[in-house]
Design a protein that fits this description.
Helices cover 51% and strands 14% of the residues. The chain is of the alpha/beta class. It has a five-stranded parallel sheet. Helix 2 packs across helix 3 and helix 2 packs across helix 4.
């Protein structure tokens, strides 16, 4: 499905960690898809949210490898991207996460990402984890299934 079509009608998009890594690290298979998603977002078609967990997950490897350039790129992405908001985990998100974990057997980070999207009223959730498509509470968009227009 074309990215533009997949995002049609989406006013708020939840995004988990992997798409940010693909974008920031210029992963060849995915960077053009993420550039297209950010282009559409920057045109004001939708806003995006992500859990603060994404920041932690994105920074772990560059901190371990002492890669200050990548650390700065991730920090800049999350601090300076227009229409992207990081959402801290609160009690409502934690409860929703527990429900998702119990219902679908999700790992805690995945459940927290989806719970964040649900609790903030997202219309869709962006991932590259096909296994998350089994979650029926939100429309799950998988990067591998999306195409640049």
């Amino acid at each position: 499905m074309q990215i533009v079509k997949a995002l049609s009608g989406v006013n708020l998009l939840g995004i988990e960690t992997a798409p940010f890594i693909y974008y920031t690290e210029n992963r060849p298979v995915y960077v053009d898809k993420m550039r297209e998603i950010f282009r559409i977002m920057n045109e004001g078609q939708f806003e995006a949210v992500s859990s603060t967990i994404a920041l932690s997950e994105c920074l772990t490897k560059p901190i371990k490898e002492n890669d200050h350039t990548l650390i700065n790129q991730f920090n800049s992405l999350f601090e300076n991207t227009y229409l992207l908001t990081l959402i801290p985990v609160d009690a409502a998100i934690a409860r929703q996460s527990a429900t998702l974990r119990a219902k679908y057997g999700l790992k805690t980070p995945d459940a927290l990402h989806i719970a964040t999207a649900l609790e903030t009223g997202c219309h869709a959730f962006l991932t590259n984890d096909m296994g998350l498509k089994r979650v029926s509470e939100i429309r799950v968009l998988v990067l591998d299934e999306l195409e640049v227009s």
